[in-house]
Design a protein that fits this description.
The complex is a heterodimer of chains A (about 325) and B (about 425). With about 325 residues, chain A is mainly α. Chain A is built from 14 helices and 2 strands. Chain A folds into 2 domains: about 70 residues, no CATH class; about 240 residues, MetI-like (MetI-like fold, Orthogonal Bundle), CATH 1.10.3720.10. Chain B contains 13 helices and 7 strands. In chain B, the strands form 3 sheets. In chain B, strands 2-1-7 form a 3-stranded antiparallel sheet, with no helix packed on it. Chain B has a two-stranded antiparallel sheet with strand order 3-4. In chain B, helix 5 packs parallel to helix 8, helix 8 packs antiparallel against helix 11 and helix 9 packs antiparallel against helix 10. The longest helix of chain B is centred in the N-terminal third of the chain and has 36 residues. The two termini of chain B are about 50 Å apart. The chains are: A mainly alpha (about 325), B mainly alpha (about 425). At the A-B interface, helix 3, helix 5, helix 6, helix 7 and helix 10 of A face helix 3, helix 5, helix 6, helix 7 and helix 8 of B.
């Protein structure tokens, strides 16, 4: 009931207010004030809640209108954008906007990163959740937290200055900028993400399942791999998807270590350019604010946004929908 | 004699041949292979855990190795000079300070308010529940959007504001307050004279005899314009004397409260863009902190006749404060290390001083480090490593602060 109603018509509630205010020796105004304040605060809270929806709306709106102006340009065709593997948006020669060159680079770096982060992250999570004694946990958890808190530009430096020389020492074919070193650094970056999300999922499996398995004579390995991991599978898959989304959107590492030559290759020794890497190249060079190449940045960002949004959305839905309820 | 030795003594085959009873069909398998597998897996786990520790040691070690020789006071006090031995990170430190404190100022109220709405105010009907679930899903999706995309959003929504207010150039344009334009002349006595400009879109003022201007001390003076070829006066008058062909340059003076629309590539834009990046993080961590408050506390306060907001303000928020603060500090340390969105909105520019107002150009520490890494010279890489040590020191002290708050202020509530 709103305060205005109760004051205009002397219902039982208005009467009660009167009696309460007389009893407390306060005026009707103070009660009205309290109700008014509650309403104002509620409206403010709702407004801030809707603000997050506004952000999503703004992202989609901005990316959509700028992408439309990109496709309106004479130099761009749909067939070229979705059908070509040549990405050559800057001056010199014929311009070509084949997004597959950038997607291919992104895929290569992501695949290398995930081949490191997913198995290592999952095994570390199983170890932390099922095996590790308290002493080891107390060392390993902070190590992972620190790894997760290191800024990505630091990983970029590490990839360029440490991983690349090591790779070049191991095998002569690696160029200074290469997909492998960027992928390894992104993998290290994603490892704590996979590990902490997967560990949360493993911890959520009730003790009863483990104890039942131990009672049947299972070893720790049996319990972990045959009972706990299948029970937490939805959480683990969700952790994997979120980590992939993170790797696809990772920017500074690939900008520093992967190179700036967009090419459709699956050779990890070559330099590649990812979607994010291209955006950084555009932002750090001086390109005019209105050319086709400027708008191409938004078209690439839109592609990236749709890819990561799909991954995170599926990840979040998997975690919620397909969670096995035990209680 | 334990079970393992028994199974070793009598192999499964012997069991099978001996037993004739009703349980003859049951095969007894040795547990040995499974135990071996378990031990091997444990070994694998320990190896991998050791690898992640080694990676961290390698990461920190290689940076210390390259950075420590370049750590010096110059790094703290200098600007981004082209000479590596004089280069420093001072303007970037101030930029980070400005951007991140503004960002915290914007993000904390909105983030905590959203968390309070979702956790403390239950939806009243079906539509309310629907909207709540949409907001919740939306927040977890926003947390997964790459930060570089937020940079592009900031570029259109804040830097140029969809072109709604025109574009800002050195000649003005857009809406602005707290800025004055001057034409600067140099008199024959080599003194600078500033002539106020009323409309900055007009070309530079023509010289008129008796025109009013300001000297370098801020005193108003009348300018004495003389034809070319006339002999120069002597004495004090020379200071305010110009030939009629004197040339001027347009300069601006900005007050500390200078504000303009569109926002441009200033500090405020950086803070707003970072706000978008860390808002989902703060909302999610605040929600977790609020969820950890036992509901008996809320019920007690409601039973005493508190209004919903009184429950939140006097009971729930104070109990959840350590958790909210911890989450906020961790989110801020993420904001400090965030490079990509700032790079998109600010670009790589030469900034030699700390920002003076909300619209001033800026750079932040990770961006300056990125700039140094992408230079070809080895010396700059060493300075970048030194800058990284500084950045990591700041971030680690933030993390330590968060751990401290979690331990000192956290008392069990239930």
């Amino acid at each position: 009931m709103s305060s205005a109603d109760s004051l205009a018509t002397p219902t039982w509630r208005g009467d009660l207010d009167d009696r309460v205010s007389k009893y407390l020796g306060r005026s009707q105004r103070s009660l009205k004030l309290v109700r008014g304040r509650e309403t104002v605060i509620y409206v403010i809270l709702i407004a801030s809640g809707l603000f997050s929806l506004l952000i999503t709306g703004a992202i989609i709106y901005v990316l959509a209108i700028e992408t439309v102006s990109f496709f309106k340009s004479d130099e761009v065709t749909f067939a070229n954008f979705f059908g070509s593997t040549t990405w050559n948006p800057l001056l010199g020669g014929t311009k070509s906007f084949g997004i597959w060159a950038l997607i291919c680079g992104t895929m290569l770096v992501t695949a290398i990163a995930m081949s490191i982060a997913l198995p290592l992250g999952l095994i570390t999570a199983i170890y932390l959740s099922e095996y590790a004694p308290r002493r080891v946990r107390n060392v390993l958890k902070p190590v992972l937290e620190v790894l997760a808190g290191v800024p990505t530009v630091v990983y970029g430096f590490f990839a360029l200055m440490t991983i690349t020389p090591i790779l070049q020492w191991l095998h002569g074919g690696f160029s200074v900028y290469n997909a492998a070193s960027a992928g390894i650094a992104v993998g290290i970056l994603c490892l704590p993400t996979v590990c902490s999300l997967a560990e949360d999922a493993l911890q959520a499996v009730p003790r009863g399942l483990r104890e039942g398995a131990y009672g049947l004579g299972a070893t720790r390995f049996d319990v972990s791999v045959k009972v706990v991991v299948p029970a937490a599978l939805s959480g683990i898959i969700s952790a994997f998807l979120l980590a992939i989304a993170r790797a696809v959107g990772e920017t500074m590492i690939v900008a520093l270590a992967a190179g700036s030559l967009a090419q459709a290759t699956f050779d990890p020794r070559q330099q590649v350019q990812t979607m994010t890497g291209f955006m950084v190249q555009m932002a750090s060079g001086d390109v005019s604010n209105y050319g086709t190449e400027y708008y191409s940045m938004y078209a690439v960002a839109f592609t990236l946004f749709i890819m990561t949004l799909a991954l995170t959305m599926v990840g979040n839905i998997v975690r919620r929908r397909f969670r096995e309820a035990y209680e | 004699m334990n079970l393992r030795e028994q199974t070793k003594m009598q192999s499964p085959a012997e069991f099978d041949s001996d037993s004739k009873g009703p349980l003859a069909s049951i095969q007894l398998l040795s547990g040995e292979p499974r135990r071996k597998l378990d031990a091997r897996f444990r070994g694998l786990c320990v190896t991998i855990a050791a690898v992640s520790v080694l990676v961290l040691i390698g990461l920190l070690g290689s940076i210390l190795l390259q950075g420590v020789p370049s750590l010096s006071l110059t790094l703290l006090t200098g600007g981004p000079e082209p000479d590596p031995s004089e280069a420093g990170i001072r303007p970037a430190i101030f930029g980070t300070l400005w951007v991140c404190s503004l960002c915290a100022l914007f993000t904390l109220p909105i983030g905590v308010a959203t968390a309070i709405l979702l956790e403390e105010y239950q939806p009243r009907n079906r539509y309310g529940r629907f909207i709540y679930s949409v907001i919740q899903l939306n927040i977890s999706n926003l947390a997964g959007v790459p930060s570089v995309v937020y940079g592009l959003l900031g570029l259109t929504a804040f830097v140029s504001m969809f072109g709604l207010f025109g574009s800002r150039t050195s000649q003005g344009g857009g809406l602005e307050i707290g800025v004055r334009y001057y034409d600067q002349f140099f008199s024959e006595g080599m003194r600078s004279i500033l002539v106020p400009v009323s409309d900055p879109s007009q070309p530079v003022n023509k010289l008129v005899n008796g025109m009013q201007g300001f000297d370098s001390r801020g005193n108003q003076v009348a300018i004495n314009v003389i034809p070319i070829g006339t002999p120069l006066p002597t004495g004090d008058e020379l200071r305010y004397t110009l030939y009629e062909d004197g040339e001027a340059g347009r300069i601006t003076k900005k007050a500390w409260y200078h504000f303009s629309l569109p926002l441009g590539r200033g500090v405020l834009t950086g803070a707003l863009t970072l706000m978008l990046v860390i808002l989902p993080v703060i909302i999610i961590s605040s929600q977790e902190a609020l969820r950890a408050v036992p509901s008996s506390l809320r019920d007690g306060a409601l039973g005493l006749g508190s209004t919903p907001w009184q429950v939140v303000w006097h009971v729930t928020l104070p109990s959840a404060m350590p958790g909210i603060l911890t989450g906020a500090i961790l989110a801020m340390s993420r904001a400090i290390g965030e490079t990509a969105p700032i790079l998109i909105i600010a670009g790589i520019v030469y900034i030699s001083r700390a920002p003076q107002n909300l619209m001033d150009d800026f750079t932040v520490m990770p961006l300056q480090i990125f700039n140094w890494i992408s230079r070809p010279q080895e010396e700059f890489h060493a300075i970048a490593a030194a800058g990284i040590i500084l950045l990591l020191a700041i971030l680690l002290s933030f993390n330590a602060l968060a751990v401290l708050i979690r331990q000192k202020l956290h008392k069990p509530l239930s």
